[in-house]
Amino acid sequence: MAAELKIKVAGYSDIGPKDENQDDFNYCHPEGDVLRFKGVVGVIADGVSSSDYGGEAARTSVKNFIEDYYSTPDSWTVKKSAQKILVALNSWLFRQGQDESSTMKGLVTTFSSIVFKSTQAYLFHIGDSRIYRLRDGGLEQLTRDHMADMGGGRIYLSRALGVDNHLEVDCRGIDLRVKDTFLLTTDGVHDFVDHDLMCEIVSEATPVAERAQKIVEKALANKTPDNVTALIFEVESLPEETEEEVFQKLTRLPFPPDLQPGMIIDGFKILQTIAESARGQVYLAEDSANQTKIVLKTPSVNYEDDPTYLNGFIQEQWVGQRINHPGVMKPYISGRHRTCLYFKTEYIEGQNLKEWIQENSEPLLSEVRPIVEQIIQALRAFHRQDMVHQDLKPDNIMIDTSGRVKIIDFGSTKVAGITEITSVINPDHPMGTLNYTAPEYMMGEQGTNRSDIFSLGVIVYEMLTGHLPYKEKNINSFKLRSYSDMKYIPARKWRLDIPEWVDAALKKAVAPNPADRYGLLSEFLYDFKTPKRDVNGADFQPLLQRNPLLVWQGVAAGCFVLWLATLWWFLLRS
Asked: In terms of Cα–Cα distance, which of 83, 112, 128, 236 is closest to 183?
């Protein structure tokens, strides 16, 4: 049976010779999907004694960081989740500490956190608490103390949570090994326990709780004047799955039979086949429980031995359930036992964008823009979740009978949070459909939000012209060796009534090199909607048409100046 991530963890804290313990620590080791998607989290904080409420700052930071981390989307990376939380925490601490009406003045604390996810550890650090790693008998300090020397032996803390509205966090990711042991300490410990002695204690074959307590007691014995806290994590096992184990997990449910109208599967009556391709089937069905129409999507038997395809099929439902947007098709969670592999979604009555393009040759810009805006709104919902769609094309965009645009297929979506999870399944081919796929995929590079912008640009170009912006690619012969091999075909070649500024926006959206492309959907939309003067004068309006008030104000001002000059001349003559 495949191993999973398992961490031994324990911590110990003591007030020491002080009146209040301003240190705090905590950890969380979840199970199941939460463990897989979010991992194990540990935090240690040391309230700055020179601030009035350092202990409160430490406790607030530890508690809120852990709670908020597990509340962030599963699709986010560890780094994105942690940084957003820390920025918000720092802002709150700083505002509360500076607010004249607040009873808590000076909410400042050091902060060090470690997140174990899959086969990686992610470290986040601010201040002079520390994170060490024991590996192969050596104890290595993985963080640096944020201290500044003022001269004359005066040293002060240069970075901490709540000390300033601006926050700079040290963060890094490192590979894990079984038996790796991590030690988190406050300065009351590491400033008063010899490094070699800490290494010796952490290396002991005793329970981690005993080791943490022993390190703290050594600091107390050495007359530390501060609070003392130690937190220890030991990696017991890492998630390791063979390709066979992954395949067995993906095929726990058998493939469904060839479905025909009238057949009933798990209480769903098949009404008709909506779409059928080499990659799967889509059926219109009726739920016998409430007589509502739904869609059933089933995998193709052509890929029954392809774990990459099966993983994408299952992930499509996972992705859809995490995006709540009217422009994205909503998969439903099946409330009944499934006898075979499929998932159900909402039924969208209408036509896909490919059909719309075929029926609307040379549409007006005013007809295209509302559709483009809706696609962008839906695509933005993916990007906010740290997802790249990777297969945007007219076939995957529906327009329902009310004019609502919906993205309906996301089996190729790249989820940043999932890419952090070690897997034997790695797609060895570009995502998406060749003529809409961003060139960087074919150059062996990773897709980003800019990759989706390329696909969107191709779609908009096709909506306006009925053609593609580059020479059509043949899947059997196309090879991309350099971005410069791709030559843009101006949209005005097909339609002279397309303004040059629109053509320029399309050209930038589909730039072969992602560095030359729009970085944000909003940038493309602005340029696509905002008229600019073309080099040949197209779309140019005289100032009198654009701003008649300004023109007449100018005329009035000129007349007034002329009157003053005439009056001055008469005065001189007299």
From this structure: 112
pLDDT band at 426 (very low <50, low <70, confident <90, very high): low
* 3 state SS of 406: strand
**C-alpha span between 530 and 367 (Å, rounded):** 15
| The pLDDT of residue 535 | 42
Identify the CA nearest to 140 among candidates 221, 79, 61, 196. Answer: 196
Nearest to 156 by CA among 108, 112, 105, 113: 108
Window from 81-95, 271-285, 292-306, 475-489 with minimum mean pLDDT: 475-489
Q: Which of 497, 566, 499 is nearest to 539 (CA)?
A: 499
What is the tens place of the pLDDT at every residue in 94-131? 998 887 555 556 899 999 999 999 999 999 999 999 99
Per the structure block, which two tokens stand in for 195?
A: 């490094």
* 350-529 homologous superfamily: Transferase(Phosphotransferase) domain 1 (1.10.510.10)
Residue with tokens 């007589």: 291
Q: Report how far residue 82's alpha carbon sits from residue 486's, in angstroms, rounded to the nearest whole number.
A: 40
pTM: 0.83
Comparing C-alpha atoms, which of 279, 418, 287, 260 is closest to residue 345?
A: 287
Asked: is 246-346 a CATH 3.40.1190.20 domain? The reply is: no
- Model confidence over 46-68: pLDDT tens digits? 999 888 889 999 999 999 999 99
Pairing mode of beta strands 331-332, 280-287: unpaired
**Domain ranges in the chain?**
6-240, 246-346, 350-529, 537-567
Question: Right CATH number for 6-240 from 3.60.40.10, 1.20.120.450, 3.40.1000.10, 3.40.50.300?
Answer: 3.60.40.10
Question: What are the residues whose beta carbons fall under 8 Å from the beta carbon of 345, sequence distance 6 or more?
Answer: 294, 295, 297, 320, 329, 330, 331, 332, 408
As beta bridge partners, residue 268 has 265, 287
